[in-house]
Write a structure and sequence with these properties.
The longest helix has 34 residues, at 59-92. The protein has 24 helices and 4 strands. It has 552 residues and is mainly alpha-helical.
Amino acid sequence: MFKKRHFKFDFWTIVTICIVLVFALFLAYPLFSLFASGFKDPETQQFTMSNFAKFFGKKYYLRTLGHSFLVTACTTVLAVAIGAPLAYATTVFKIRGKGLVDILVIISMLSPPFIGAYSWIILGGRSGTITEFFKNVFGIVTPSIYGFGGILLVLTLRLYPFIYLYTKGALKNVDVSLSEAAESLGCSGFKKVTTVILPLIAPTILAGSLLVFMNALADFGTPMLIGEGYTVMPVLIYSEFISEMGGQANFAAALAVILVVITGIMFLAQKYIVNRKSFTMSSLRPIQASKLHGIKNTLLHLGVYAIVLLSVVPQITVIYTSFKATKGAMFADGFSLDSYKSIFKNLGTPIINTYKFGLIALVIIIVMAMFIAYITTRRKSWLTNVIDSMTMFPYIIPGSVLGITLLLAFNDKPILLSGTATIIIIAFVVRRLPYTLRSSAAILYQISPSMEEAAISLGDSPVKTFFKVTAVMMLPGVMSGAILSWITIINELSSSVILYTGKTRTMSVAIYTEVIRASYGTAAALASILTVTTIASLLLFFKLSGSKEVKL
C-alpha cells in the first residue's frame, strides 16, 4: 500500500506561491515580451532576425556598442585605480576626519549620476565657471566636458566608491600576521602589497568591478546630458524606442535584448571566476592604522582630501547654484530664492510624485523583502531557490531596458498600465527590492530559530510567531536596507524617463528635462531637494544601523 501525501496549504505556502506569481507577472513575463518583440518584424509581426541583422550590419550601431564597452572598461579601470588605493590608505594609515571622508564618499555614490553631469556642465561647460576663469585669467582653453572625456570623469567619480567600500571591507578581514610573515621573509612595502595583500582581496575587487561595469554600462543620464554625439547603448535604446513609439518598437527591443545578454554573460563570468578564486578569511588580528610622518603624511592627506573633494563637487555645486539669482533661464549676479519659488509654483507635482510613489514602493518592498527573506532562509525548497535566483535579475537589467520591458508587456489589455503611476511603482519595486532583501536575509541569519520555537511552544501559531517575534526582531536590519532602497528610488531616472507622463513625472525626470531646456536654476533647486533628502536618509540609515558603513 502506498501512503497518500497531502499538500498542505498553510500561510507560508500561499505566500511562496503569491511571490512566484508576482515575479512571473512583473519580471519573467516582461522579459519574455522583450525577447519576443526583439524577434518580430515591425510590419508583419512575424518571427525574424532582421532587427539583429540591422544592428550587426551597420557600423553606426556597432560603433555605439564599442563606445559603451570603451566607456565602461575605462571607468572600471579608473575606479579600481582610485578606489582600491584610497581604501588601502584610509585602512592602513591614520587619516584625520576618516569618518567624514567615508560619509562624503558614500554620499557621492548614492547621489544620482545625472546630477554629476549637470554640475560639471555648470563648471566645465562652454560658459562654465572653470572654463570662464581659465579663459579670462590665463587665456587657456580648457578641455571640453562634453563627449568621452566628460562621461568618463563623471562616471569614475561616482562609481569608484563601490571599489572603495568593497576593498575596505575586504581589508578589515586580512590578518596582520600575514603581513608580518611577509616582512620577516624580506618583503618590502610595495612588494608586500602586490604579493600578499592584493591576491587576498582580488576576488572582492573583482566583485566591485562588476558592479562598476554594470552601472557604467546601464547609465543613461550622464551620456545623454554630456555625450554630444558620443552615443552609448542606453542612449541609443532610448532614442530608438522614442522614435519608434508611433509604430512598433521592435528594433529598440532587439537592442535591449543585446544589452541584457551582454550584462548576463558578464555577471555569470564574474560569478564563475569569484567562486573559483574566493576563499574565507578570519581576521584574528585586523590591520591597525599607523601614522605617517613628515612629507609622506602631508601628501597622503592632500591626496585623500583632493579625491573626496572632487567626489562631492556635484553636491556642492547644485546647492550653491540653487541660490543664485536668475534672469529667465540664465543665472544672474547675486543670490535669491527665485529658483525655489519657481519649482514650488510650477513643478510641485514631480516633488509630490517622488515622495508619494517612493513611499508606496518602499512599503511594498519592505513587506516583500521580509516574506522572501523568511521563506528563502527558514523554509528552503526548490521553489524558494527559484525565488532566490529571480531576485538577482534586477542586478543585470539596466533601468532603461526595464522601462521598455514593462511598456511592451503592459501597453495593451487585459493589463494596461502604461502611462499610470502603477507602472512606475512596479519599476521602483523590481529594481530596488534587492537592497532591502539582502539586509533582511542578513539579519534573519542572526536570529536563532529557537526564539520562534519558544513562542510556538507557548501556544502561538507559526504565522502569529512571525509577526509578533521574528518580524519585530528583523525590523532594524530591514529598515536599514529599506533606507538604501528609498535613496535609490528617489534618485531613479533611467526607467522613469521611459515610463513617465505629464502627470507622473518624478523629480529626477524633472531635473533631466530642466537641464535639457537649459533651465539650470530650477534644475539646481530640484537637485538640491533631492540631495538634501538623500543626505538626511543616509544619516537616518547610520542612526538605525549603528554603523558608519554601507554594505553592498
